[in-house]
Write a structure and sequence with these properties.
four-stranded antiparallel sheet; single chain; 24 strands; 1 helix; Neuraminidase
Length: 284
């Protein structure tokens, strides 16, 4: 497929309104990027902290004190909670929550890594930091966890926007990762890929829940890929990196490239490196 066709396809699938389907990329203008990007910054070894930045690279703001090895920030609009994982010097993994005003940080769990909040903010997903790599859903009200991964070894997980499905990357027997869907409505577990010697990791849903965006090494290096969940059709916008996070309008994506965070149009155009850092999360 020619690059022009890829650009048209990707821009169409991520738009929340398709009223301009007849326009070409040259006729359409990409709106200004909005929201904030949370990411992990560092000024010295073993000293990491949560930072926010505007998608144009301005307004960099430190949000937390330094932790030994902070990673993977998560945010929920409904509750205002920001979650992140920290590894202590003895490699114990801990989950922390930070409130909306940023004046309270509390440790919630140990030997676990946070994956995502439910859309209503009442639950969060976490994986166990052991050989089992089990996925649990944790109720913030009841302070109780329920295992939902059965016998799968989960390496990453995220909720759909309607809260009905959880997309996961799962360790396969050959040591690579495949994609699965886990229903939150007792509809079971669906395997989406079975690609030997190919990794598909860190899946996230588009706003309409029709597509998954993730990184794969199918082409030799880690590149962004789209999957139509219903048809399994794949598209490749030629973005290299890790840890994708879509903008609120799904027209842009933040990702980690090397030791820096970057943003791009979802079709792979206008790539811009913002700052040194890792594991970005695009928020409203």
């Amino acid at each position: 497929m020619k690059r022009t066709a890829i650009i048209v396809f990707v821009l169409l699938i991520v738009a929340t309104s398709l009223s301009a389907q007849s326009e070409t990329p040259a006729q359409s203008e990409t709106p200004a990027m909005t929201g904030k990007i949370l990411y992990i910054d560092s000024t010295a070894p073993d000293s990491y902290f949560l930072t926010s930045i505007n998608p144009d690279g301005s307004g960099k703001t430190r949000l937390t004190p330094a932790f030994n090895n902070m990673m993977f920030p998560r945010y929920n609009e409904a509750s205002g909670w920001i979650g992140f994982t920290n590894k202590t010097p003895d490699m114990t993994s801990e989950i922390y929550l930070l409130n909306r005003s940023g004046d309270r940080v509390k440790k919630v769990l140990t030997d676990a890594a946070i994956e995502d909040f439910s859309p209503d903010g009442k639950f969060f997903l976490y994986t166990t930091c052991d050989g089992k790599a089990e996925l649990f859903v944790y109720s913030l009200d009841r302070k109780r966890a329920t295992k939902i991964s059965q016998n799968l070894k989960v390496t990453a997980a995220s909720y759909s926007k309607n809260g009905e499905w959880i997309a996961t990357s799962v360790l396969a027997e050959d040591g690579t990762n495949d994609l699965y869907l886990i229903s939150t409505l007792a509809q079971g577990i669906i395997r989406l890929t079975e690609t030997k010697k190919v990794n598909e990791t860190f899946p996230v849903f588009t706003n309409d829940d029709k597509f998954l965006v993730y990184f794969t090494d199918r082409y030799g290096s880690n590149e962004l890929e789209f999957m139509n969940i219903e048809t399994k059709e794949l598209q490749r916008p030629n973005i290299t990196g890790l840890f994708p996070s879509l903008s609120p309008d799904n027209m842009n994506v933040a990702f980690q490239v090397g030791n820096s965070i970057a943003v791009s149009r979802i079709d792979g155009l206008n790539i811009k490196v913002l700052a040194p850092g890792r594991t970005p999360l695009w928020t409203k």
